[in-house]
Amino acid sequence: MKKSILLYFSLIMMSFQIMAQSYDMVIKGGHLIDPINKIDQIMDVAISGNKIAAVKKRIPIEQAKKVVNASGLIVSPGLIDMHTHNFFGTVPNRYLANSFSAVPPDGFTFRTGVTTVVDAGSPGWRNFELYKSQVIDQSKTRVLCFLNIVGAGMSGSHREQHIDDMNPEMAAIVTKQNKNYIVGIKLAHFMGFDWTPTELAVEAGKLSSTPVMIDFGGSNPELPLDKLFLEKLRPGDIFTHAYAHVNGRTPIVDDSGKVRDYVFKAQKRGIVFDVGHGGGSFLFEQAIPAIRQGLKPDVISTDLHTGSMNGGMKSLNNVMSKFLNMGLTVQEVVAATTSRPAKYIQRKDLGHLSVGAEADVAIHNLRKGNFGFIDVRGKRMKGNQKLECELTLRAGKVVYDLNGLAGQDWDK
Predict the structure, then answer these.
(1) Predicted TM-score (pTM) of this structure
(2) Rounded CA gap, 53 and 82, in Å?
(3) Helix (H, G, I), strand (E, B) or coil at 160
(4) Structural domain includes residue 111
């Protein structure tokens, strides 16, 4: 009889415990940085299913089926890399459009806390359908896209010089038909002394009510950069490779080390300055003087492809770390990879950990020590701090766990 009573009460207690576990996961004790919600302090984050269920100073562990101890670590929304190239394929001599230099997102995102990538113009309006079936539909990473104004996409060489393949009406139609995936229009690599491609890209942006990202330069003589900033682009349009010094484009920092006056005017006007590090588009001799004079990037991104990831760029964590060591705060670096890119691509659902938002979360370790960083010419900058991704959640599921934060000891 006593055994029956004890068993009965044990079952009741177990049922109460199960009922009390109202969250699938609670991330405990991490320093939460969520710029949209103006949170910059130690907070707990609870997840139910694929959604953020609660953000509080203290959530009892009894309410969680799984607890992740983030003490001493930084918790942020899942990172957004606003400049990548993911149209991987096997077509020879097509550069980043269904060819070998592009990379599949899932192989390079989650390990750096990235849950959303924005492809910067790899597909065009002619081949977006193939891109969607081959990349977007096959990836756990959320894949968005700037559509190339060139119908054939970023296929390299002479194929990106065809003005007759730059059709703003068709680009706008494809963008509107795929508004869940296409967030803007891209122009890149045009080499002629001609404003027509810029004007066609902006026209496509107007027709589709989306921003334009431009990789400017390549003409000889150079097209005037101040005219691009102050006349051709609209507020909200994006100037990528901001800290580059390449042939055919005026650098934002002049030979005396001074940021050109019209560059500050452009940023104040609403032109978005994107890092777009890449394999050839980031120099410390541009970035360090610019930041010291107050020209900080609006967005930090990688320009991810096989050339950049094996060079000075490496990963989004590495690029973020460069800017930490150049004087940006952790809060600024997180904003430049979460809330700001979400704003510029017009995706209010991303870049924050509001209750009800999809549970894309990144947990970072800010390591202290002696580190070195290189730019695209192999020039080194020393640093004493480096961000490293510890754990990534995509839609509430653990997709990367460096040190087993979300794991259970094997012998328990």
Answers:
(1) 0.95
(2) 27
(3) helix
(4) yes
